[in-house]
């Protein structure tokens, strides 16, 4: 089904949705869900036959960007392509998975079974369905940001014949995934970001300690009624891997206390709620560790929580208080209102071993589809060392290692343009 097309300055937009199986791999399961996407094209070229690029958003659980104009990487891509913005299953205007959804399941096992259908293999199957039904089966290219890079490697493992070229920004996943190893590497990176933050804003170290002491001694409630604990405050550090994350944190803290110094301001509490409630992306929390489940590599078993025990500097009683990063912990599904209905299912997933093979190592090693990847050397979320290991294990990968950008470097026009030019100079994509 397609909605009426319309124009945003610089963009001609066509919205559409398709019905897909909940379970692509079990024909006996007749349940369907819908997947929503937007097709963008330069208004002056909307009647032309153009190559197509699908954007694979970060996450897991991230919806596609909502464009405000032909700027950034979208503006760059529209010079040569139609662009498809896919709301991955469970997100945005696709059939959503949220607290209400999870509250309908009778037990943890049923909830976990449902969530297992929102992994990379199913997202790639959805994309393939759209390519075949909406675009006549023509090969297309992909641009994968962060988790979108994980999806790219699954796509190359399952349907390389669909792809002309791939671009990845900050997301060359390890093709031998190990959640424990991921957190062994990212906790030290997160600690380094904390040190950089306090070096830039030394007075904030005192302010954060005062704030943590206040939360430890008082029952402070967020606007939705949840208690603001010190460990929930610490999760704000997830923004340290983005620019200008340090500045966003600094200005948030700047207005934390009221004039009397005894109370926290309503504005501060509202902003903390918005940044930590997962209202817009609950799957980001619910599936964070599941993206590392591959074949028989064992249950993730709350890998971040286990690794946290090896880093006492991140304790909620430690001073200076250290902020955590892209780590999800079991307590979050108890303390955060919109995650509580996920608790049973997520605990069940953490205990399961999946047989799903996300990556075909032989096929990836023999890959012929050109892939240009930006590897951010100081990336707080996707370790650059693991990314370079993957670049060496996958055929036809051209890695650009840079410390000029943080994990959200895709927001700079330069990044996608550089990757596209790299492939152009190497002969371009597959015709």
3D architecture notes:
There is one protein chain. A 9-stranded mixed sheet has the order 1-2-3-5-4-6-7-8-9, sandwiched between helices. The radius of gyration is 22 Å and the shape is globular. The longest helix has 22 residues, at 179-200. The chain contains 17 helices and 9 strands. It is of the alpha/beta class and 431 residues long. Strand 4, helix 1 and strand 5 form a beta-alpha-beta unit. The model has no long low-confidence stretch (mean pLDDT 97).
The average pLDDT value, as a whole number, equals 97
Structural class: alpha/beta
Biggest sheet: strand arrangement: 1-2-3-5-4-6-7-8-9
Largest sheet: 9 strands, mixed
Number of strands: 9
Q: What sequence of helices (H) and strands (E) makes up the elements?
A: EEEEHEHHHEHEHHHHHHHHHHEHEH
Beta fraction: 5-15%
Low-confidence stretches: none
How many helices? The count is 17
Portion in helices: 25-40%
CA-atom Rg in angstroms: 22 Å
| Through-space gap between termini | 29 Å
Overall shape: globular
Looking at this protein, list some descriptive labels.
single chain; 431 residues; alpha/beta; nine-stranded mixed beta sheet; 17 helices; 9 strands; globular
What is this entry, summarized?
It is built from 17 helices and nine strands. A nine-stranded mixed β-sheet has the order 1-2-3-5-4-6-7-8-9, sandwiched between helices.
């Amino acid at each position: 089904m397609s909605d009426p097309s319309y124009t945003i300055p610089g963009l001609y937009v066509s919205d559409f949705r398709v019905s897909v199986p909940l379970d692509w791999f079990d024909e006996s399961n007749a349940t369907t869900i819908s997947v929503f996407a937007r097709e963008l094209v330069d208004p002056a070229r909307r009647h032309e036959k153009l190559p197509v690029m699908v954007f694979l958003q970060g996450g897991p659980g991230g919806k596609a960007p909502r464009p405000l104009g032909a700027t950034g990487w979208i503006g760059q891509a529209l010079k040569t392509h139609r662009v498809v913005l896919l709301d991955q299953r469970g997100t945005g205007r696709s059939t959503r998975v949220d607290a209400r959804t999870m509250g309908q399941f009778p037990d943890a096992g049923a909830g976990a079974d449902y969530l297992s259908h929102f992994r990379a293999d199913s997202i790639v199957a959805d994309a393939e369905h759209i390519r075949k039904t909406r675009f006549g089966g023509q090969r297309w290219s992909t641009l994968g940001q962060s988790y979108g890079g994980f999806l790219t490697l699954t796509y190359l493992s399952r349907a390389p014949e669909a792809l002309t070229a791939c671009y990845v920004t900050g997301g060359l996943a390890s093709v031998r995934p190990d959640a424990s190893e991921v957190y062994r590497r990212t906790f030290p990176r997160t600690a380094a970001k904390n040190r950089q933050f306090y070096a830039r804003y030394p007075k904030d170290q005192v302010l954060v300690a005062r704030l943590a002491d206040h939360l430890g001694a008082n029952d402070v409630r967020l606007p939705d009624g949840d208690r603001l604990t010190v460990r929930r405050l610490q999760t704000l550090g997830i923004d340290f891997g983005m620019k200008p994350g340090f500045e966003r944190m600094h200005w948030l803290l700047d207005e934390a206390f009221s004039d009397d110094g005894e109370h926290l301001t309503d504005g501060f509490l509202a902003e903390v709620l918005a940044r930590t409630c997962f209202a817009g992306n609950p799957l980001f929390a619910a599936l964070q560790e599941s993206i590392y489940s591959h074949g028989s590599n064992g249950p993730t078993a709350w890998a971040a929580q286990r690794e946290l025990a090896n880093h006492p500097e991140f304790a909620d009683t430690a001073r200076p208080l250290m902020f955590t990063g892209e780590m999800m912990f079991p307590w979050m599904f108890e303390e955060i209102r919109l995650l509580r209905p996920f608790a049973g299912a997520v605990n069940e997933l953490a205990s399961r071993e999946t047989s799903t093979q996300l990556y075909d190592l032989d096929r990836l090693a023999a890959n012929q589809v050109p892939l240009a990847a930006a590897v951010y050397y100081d990336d707080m979320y996707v370790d650059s060392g693991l990314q370079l290991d993957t670049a060496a294990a996958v055929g036809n990968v051209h890695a650009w290692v840079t410390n000029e950008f943080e994990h959200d470097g895709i927001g700079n026009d330069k990044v996608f343009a550089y990757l596209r030019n790299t492939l152009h100079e190497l002969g371009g994509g597959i015709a």
